[in-house]
Specification:
The protein is of the alpha/beta class. Helices cover about 45% and strands about 15% of the residues.
Length: about 270
């Protein structure tokens, strides 16, 4: 029952065939359109968009080029490209501060062109108190925080995340599979929810972990965090409210979601 999806991807690399030939930009856009139409044949209200990504272990020159390219794609293809992020293993890669100057170029580009490319930064996927990338993610104005696992180590920053209304993308099974937490009952995000931090549930890397959808993640936290119906409703609403959709798109998506939520509750009451 996933209604909307946002994929972090390399728009620049696109796809390649078995002979190593990369498709053109036009062919890539055609593939996106075909995928969208195929999905909407199953669910007419389904939507998906892209967050252009780069890798945090690249040097500043490479990140600078990727930032410029991502802004160009945002300008040319506003339907598809909605944000920018740096991914890869956080403890082994460069800090967010290391790339801050390159990321701040997006402010100048916005002033020059009038086109904004928001940040959705992947930070806090660490057990270490010394990994303080979350501070720079917040100072850089990230719209959401990908993971935010070690946010609990910075109480003042946690309050700032609440104040700035930054949403945390929680990936419970990913965190467990990768060894950040053994027992999901002890996952820090259960505390985030109780302290008023807005969160969403993410599957992180479904192709790598070889499972589809979000049912496993939701079922796991529903049991581990002893969530009630109100908490589930808040988590699913947040998925739309803090998405990279436009305000008009959010209104439409929320109307669809409300009908589906009411049907879900009615079916649950009838069955149980």
């Amino acid at each position: 029952n996933i209604q909307h999806a946002e994929f972090r991807t390399f728009f620049t690399s696109r796809f390649y065939d078995l002979e190593g030939n990369f498709n053109t930009e036009a062919e890539y856009l055609e593939i996106l359109d075909k995928v969208e139409k195929a999905a909407q044949q199953l669910d007419p209200d389904f939507t998906f968009i892209l967050l252009q990504q780069s890798l945090r272990f690249f040097d500043n020159h490479k990140i600078g080029k990727d930032v410029m390219a991502a802004h160009g794609y945002r300008t040319k293809y506003p339907k598809w490209v909605r944000g920018f992020d740096l991914v890869a293993e956080e403890d082994a890669g460069h800090t967010t501060h290391f790339h801050a100057k390159e990321l701040l170029k997006l402010d100048s580009l916005k002033q020059e062109t009038g086109v904004e490319l928001p940040l959705y930064l992947h930070n806090g996927e660490s057990n270490w108190a010394s990994t303080a990338n979350l501070y720079d993610a917040v100072l850089l104005g990230t719209k959401r925080i990908g993971h935010g696992f070690n946010l609990f180590r910075f109480p003042n920053l946690l309050e700032l995340v609440k104040e700035k209304d930054i949403c945390v993308e929680v990936s419970p099974l990913s965190n467990q599979i990768l060894g950040y937490i053994r027992d999901l009952r002890m996952h820090p995000a259960s505390t985030y929810l109780r302290r008023g931090v807005n969160c969403v549930i993410s599957s992180d890397d479904p192709m790598i972990f070889d499972y589809q959808g979000l049912s496993y993640d939701f079922w796991s936290v529903f049991l581990a965090w002893e969530l009630d119906l109100a908490a589930l409703k808040k988590l699913t609403r947040n998925s739309i409210e803090y998405s990279a959709l436009t305000e008009v798109e959010k209104v439409k998506a929320m109307a669809v979601w409300e009908k589906r939520w009411d049907l879900f509750v009615d079916n649950a009451l009838a069955e149980f």
